[in-house]
Design a protein that fits this description.
Layout lengths: L1 H18 L5 H24 L7 H7 L3 H9 L6 H9 L6 H10 L6 H10 L8 H7 L5 H13 L3 H13 L3 H17 L1
Helix pairs in contact: 4-5, 7-9, 8-9, 9-11, 10-11
């Protein structure tokens, strides 16, 4: 008697998906939205829950496309410290979309603190970052210019060296001009 009962149970379980009927687009959408909300909540928890940034693998485990969520947070001027953490985390995904977020964050309408940090993060884009960093060397704020110079020094290659050299020639602040010349000399001596 046990075998027919077990057989009936197995047949019922095997047929269950077929009996479920077609999927409901409203339910599927709600589930996708709930999943997206849950992933964003996990990313936000990672951004808020650490003194420093968690490792990349934690973000990848929290969401299907963590960079997409991080870009949304990084573009939100109201996100406060979470925005700054998202901008930093994006350095692990140095693609064109991240570059666009960094480029936008360097706008004069953003707080100086955000701009200083982004100048350091954009370095992961290598030569592509040189024009942004060189433009920051023309900012009115000597602090922004100094951060741009430090970041530009970290970018390898002749384009960065040329931008540092040109900035040294036109820098009005004597201390920063000396720093720029020293950076150019160090880069030239490494060859």
């Amino acid at each position: 008697m046990r075998h027919p009962t077990l057989l009936t149970l197995l047949l019922t379980l095997a047929a269950a998906p077929a009996c479920a009927g077609p999927s409901n687009p409203q339910t599927d959408t709600r589930t996708a939205a709930q999943t997206a909300d849950a992933e964003r909540a996990q990313i936000e928890a990672l951004l808020r829950g650490y003194h420093g940034l968690p490792e990349k693998a934690r973000f990848e485990a929290a969401a299907t496309d963590p960079a997409k969520i991080l870009r949304v947070i990084a573009a939100d001027a109201q996100a406060g410290p979470m925005r700054t953490a998202a901008l930093e985390a994006l350095k692990w995904w140095p693609d064109a979309r991240t570059f666009a977020v960094y480029e936008s964050a360097l706008g004069a309408e953003n707080p100086a603190g955000v701009r200083h940090k982004v100048l350091r993060y954009v370095v992961v884009h290598g030569d592509r970052a040189v024009p942004l960093l060189a433009a920051a060397l023309n900012e009115p704020s000597v602090q922004i210019r100094r951060t741009a110079a430090i970041a530009l020094f970290e970018v390898p290659g002749p384009k960065a060296t040329k931008a540092l050299s040109e900035a040294a020639d036109k820098e009005a602040d004597p201390t920063l001009a000396a720093e720029l010349r020293a950076q150019v000399a160090r880069r030239n001596s490494v060859r």
